[in-house]
């Protein structure tokens, strides 16, 4: 890779490469050279330009033909759509004439089903209320029982002295022993 870049660097060192370039001073250039260049461009460019223009002309003609075909298709589709519209309008008139009784029937069916649904929702609501009431009542019972139990324990502990406490324990032990003997 270094050899390739060295070869380009060495080209810049040639004395003839320094003098090569375009002379942009129009008055100093040779008019004959300019006419030769313009003649070559016209000679070779004329074929390319005519080909480009012919291609453009063909594309425009093809576009016009396609547009006319599409226009014809669109007119046919428009006529079909108009015929369908007339048919649908006639059917709509028939539905209007025959449909009012069906609409009233559907309306009454809808109202009936709505009332049934509302009744079911009311029943669900009442069941939910009863369930919640029962749950709250159970919570209140539980809380009252806990408070009563705490009050009873407080009363028992305040009334019990050591002697009464020992007697109660002994009596319970005796009952448990008797129950054990009965089960054995």
Automatic annotation (TrEMBL):
Pfam families: ATP-synt_B (PF00430). It is a single-pass membrane protein. One of its GO terms (biological process) is proton motive force-driven ATP synthesis. Keywords: ATP synthesis, CF(0), Chloroplast, Coiled coil, Hydrogen ion transport, Ion transport, Membrane, Plastid, Transmembrane, Transmembrane helix, Transport. One of its GO terms (molecular function) is proton transmembrane transporter activity. F(1)F(0) ATP synthase produces ATP from ADP in the presence of a proton or sodium gradient. F-type ATPases consist of two structural domains, F(1) containing the extramembraneous catalytic core and F(0) containing the membrane proton channel, linked together by a central stalk and a peripheral stalk. During catalysis, ATP synthesis in the catalytic domain of F(1) is coupled via a rotary mechanism of the central stalk subunits to proton translocation. This is ATP synthase CF0 subunit I. The lineage of its organism: Eukaryota, Viridiplantae, Streptophyta, Embryophyta, Tracheophyta. The gene is atpF.
